[in-house]
């Protein structure tokens, strides 16, 4: 039976790409969105039939900091995919960039974990969180040429992504009886582009985990290929196989 999947940040490129593939494959999906009509329009523009949306997609309107809305989205999910992220403010000063919601990633994961603590389901889900390269404390995972740009322009959202990862690590460090997730997979793409999906043969990946520090260094990757990688390697391979291969891992993705 296809895994039931809860999506957060589903109107964003990488998460939207994964959601579309999951719907096409017949997975029951729920998605939290500030605008259900916007999400449906985006999916229809990707040639997902209305019949598929009606059969397999449940949309919940609300904010990621609303625990009740998050709880409804999580209902019966065995897999969670969160691609929440901050965006630069309109007309932001490139010399002093500012972002619309500088703590959105850590707040999202905090709310998801809080909602899971009150859930009645005995089955703990696997949580996949989309993060970023450039924040590893174990090895450099970006080319030297990008280091100044990351440190300057992306400092604020990267601090948020790092705080998000710390929350996940803290949850995993708890005794198994106290955890609310089966495990996590952190996906760290390099700079995201709006390019087309090139396919798995063009995507390089590296890993950080227990006993492994081997990130992949690269410049860019499309949002389509990030969503495609998550679908192919975690969703499509089956719940148990995906958990076994990637659980507890931080995966860097690039071309």
> Unreliable stretches, pLDDT < 50, 5 or more residues?
none
Main beta sheet, described? 9 strands, mixed
Helical segment count: 9
Mean pLDDT: 93
Helix content: 25-40%
Terminal CA distance: 33 Å
By secondary-structure content and strand pairing, the structural class works out as alpha/beta
> Quick one: overall form?
globular
Lateral strand order in the biggest sheet: 3-2-1-4-5-6-11-8-9
Walk me through this protein's architecture.
By secondary structure, this protein is an alpha/beta fold. 38% of the residues lie in helices and 20% in strands. It has nine helices and eleven strands. The chain has a nine-stranded mixed beta sheet, sandwiched between helices. It has a two-stranded parallel ribbon with strand order 7-10. The protein is globular. The model has no long low-confidence stretch (mean pLDDT 93).
Q: What's the arrangement of secondary structure elements?
A:
Elements: E1 5-8, H1 13-24, E2 29-33, H2 36-45, H3 50-56, E3 57-61, H4 67-74, E4 79-82, H5 104-117, E5 126-130, H6 147-153, H7 155-173, E6 183-189, E7 191-193, E8 204-209, E9 212-214, E10 220-222, H8 223-235, H9 239-246, E11 249-254
Parallel strand pairs: 1-2, 1-4, 2-3, 4-5, 5-6, 6-11, 7-10
Antiparallel strand pairs: 8-9, 8-11
Helix pairs in contact: 1-8, 4-5, 5-7
